[in-house]
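Minutes, project check-in
Item: structure for the 245-residue chain
Input as provided by the requester:
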Amino acid sequence: MEEVNGLCNEYDEFFEMGKEFHVPVLDPWLEIEVIKNGIVVDHYKDRSHSWNRNAYNWMMSQLGSVDINGGAVFDAGYINIKNTAGSVQNLSTGVALQYPTTDSYGYKGAAADITVGIVVGSGLGAESFNGYVLGSPIPHGASANTLAYNQSNTPTLAWASGTLTWASSIVRYLNNNSGGTVTVNEVGLYMGGGYSWRNVFGSQFTKYITMVNRDNISASPISCDDASQLRLTYSVSLVYPSPSG
């Protein structure tokens, strides 16, 4: 059953106001298709509305060119990152999505890898701005209550000159070879990033994995039957103001 955010009209108005006042307004969506025997048998689509503190802190560090270095407290008034293991990391200036076309970095998870990219879970917990990991990630595998994670696609980027819009999509396929039905209640976006720094031993590189988004879809859970496939897409677009505006 397709779901569409009930606040779409208000958001569309907000989106148009952003263009008018030259204020960036992202338009992010999560889409899930259940495919069996080449036919889409179930479909979910809604605005992705649960970007967390990690995402906000990362954006602020990039736009403001400031250190992600706020001590060990993950809360208001601090700019840092909480990784999926629950550790607060203080990173140096310039932290970024490293090598976004390389497996295990950016949002490009390798085959069988549930630590980077689009990851699904069965958890029912409410969305939280301070959330940093899925409640119950569904493991990779071919046994009961698992899904086979394929390699993520290289994120696409397209420019539409007519509407002055950049659009990016992240896609991942998951196969159900478990022998039974697997239910998805939550979807997260895990980012593999890193930062470089220098000490007496020379240049060093530290990698981190952080969840930047978690959508709780348990109100309309996705049931994936045995021998079916999930196609998950996170897409985001940004309309640029007219140069003459």
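Outcome recorded: Residues 8-239 form one domain.
No further action items on this chain.
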